[in-house]
Design goal:
Distance between the termini: 45 Å
CATH class of the largest domain: Alpha Beta
Number of strands: 17
Number of helices: 15
Strand order of the largest sheet: 2-1-13-12-14-15-16-17
Structural class: alpha/beta
Helix content: 25-40%
Radius of gyration: 20 Å
Largest sheet: 8 strands, mixed
CATH topology of the largest domain: Rossmann fold
CATH architecture of the largest domain: 3-Layer(aba) Sandwich
Length: 369
């Protein structure tokens, strides 16, 4: 099956490939290359769980086979509504390797938004937590399934945690279990005969707009991989970089500006924070030696207050990105000294435009733009 989406004009695609901006690689292939280059390096940390690059690649392979056995195929849309957990990263790369398209939803979305995303994307699957922030996502999906006409497109609900007993609910861990069904007998190949191409649709990002129902922004493997790589270069990321994912990973800022994908591209380590509170984040910064993270302006005063009153060792943290809204100049000036970091202001949008102050820009430029 070939995904359909508005293609990049040939002249632009040829120019970007000739200039070396687009690598012609899919995210599934990129992960395999990273795993071969740095198999024992820590790629992902979530609480007490840790993955090397090789371990991440192996689990993504297992999950890809599980998704294929479930019935997902190249081109299928999959609404992904997960909080910050390692499962988001595993699932995202497995969908890329399969050629299915993740449709990003925010953790706080509820029935109206999720129902809208399922409808406009024609998703055949949805991935949710069992419960998060005192909300039972399974009950929401049961209501949405009940409201779907017979034979509707949504066929599968994958649950991270307890899936319950509904026939259309599958536990995430079941998809990683190679002792079940066809996986145990080796009847499913590691890869499809024809997988996605680098110019294919890779994901549908949730829009950054503030009005109405969420819109979906198409991004290809080529252009989104460049987004992450270029941002990583501007931020000076390398194999000693440790990125803390504080904001939702489904957010473009957290995923690829440079975020999770930029850090993995550079050979660094991604640490997942289950919530954005400074108490949680500061403990992770100290424990994991975090070097860079990203916030929105409303979180900044809370982090500054905690830094002033707490005793966490934040000496490893070098860069603090702030984006998503305008940071007041006086707060920007106070932030660097308060946390002992270089502040980087970021303005971008899901459609692709991204602007970042450079780390060696003047204080005046960093604090006022």
């Amino acid at each position: 099956m070939t995904t359909t989406h508005p293609a990049w004009p040939d002249a632009f695609a040829e120019r970007y490939r000739a200039g070396g901006h687009w690598s012609g690689r899919t995210f599934g292939d990129l992960l395999r290359t990273w795993a071969a280059e740095r198999p024992t390096t820590t790629a992902l940390v979530d609480g007490d769980r840790r993955w090397t690059y090789a371990g991440l690649d192996a689990d993504v392979d297992r999950l890809t086979r599980g998704l294929r056995q479930l019935g997902l195929r190249q081109g299928d849309r999959v609404v992904v509504q997960l909080p910050n957990r390692a499962e988001f990263v595993l699932l995202w790369f497995a969908l890329q390797r399969l050629g299915a398209v993740p449709v990003h939803a925010m953790p706080g979305h509820r029935r109206t938004e999720i129902g809208h995303l399922l409808h406009v994307s024609g998703a055949s699957a949805c991935v949710i937590p069992d419960r998060h922030a005192r909300f039972d996502h399974r009950e929401m999906l049961l209501e949405l399934l009940a409201g779907q006409s017979e034979g509707g497109p949504l066929r599968h609900v994958i649950v991270v945690g307890d899936p319950g007993h509904h026939r259309q609910f599958t536990g995430f861990d079941e998809l990683l279990d190679e002792t079940r069904g066809g996986l145990a007998h080796g009847i499913l190949p590691d890869r499809q005969e024809s997988g996605p191409a680098s110019g294919d649709l890779a994901l549908l990002l949730h829009s950054g707009g503030t009005t109405g129902l969420p819109k979906l922004i198409p991004r290809t493997h080529d252009d989104y991989a460049y987004n992450a790589r270029a941002a990583a270069e501007i931020c000076g990321l390398g194999d000693d970089s440790v990125y803390l994912a504080v904001l939702p990973i489904a957010f473009n800022f957290t995923l690829a500006c440079p975020g999770v994908l930029g850090t993995l591209t550079a050979g660094g380590t991604v640490v997942v924070s289950p919530d954005p509170s400074p108490q949680t984040a500061f403990a992770l910064i100290e424990r994991e030696g975090v070097t860079i993270t990203s916030l929105t302006p409303p979180l900044v005063p809370h982090w500054m207050n905690e830094a002033a009153s707490g005793d966490a060792d934040l000496s490893s943290l070098k860069v603090l990105q702030v984006g998503g809204a305008r940071l007041p100049d006086d707060v920007a000036r106070a932030l660097g000294p308060a946390l002992g970091v270089t502040v980087q202001q970021v303005f971008g949008m899901a459609e692709g435009l991204i602007n970042l102050t450079r780390l060696d820009d003047s204080e005046a430029l960093i604090c006022t733009t």
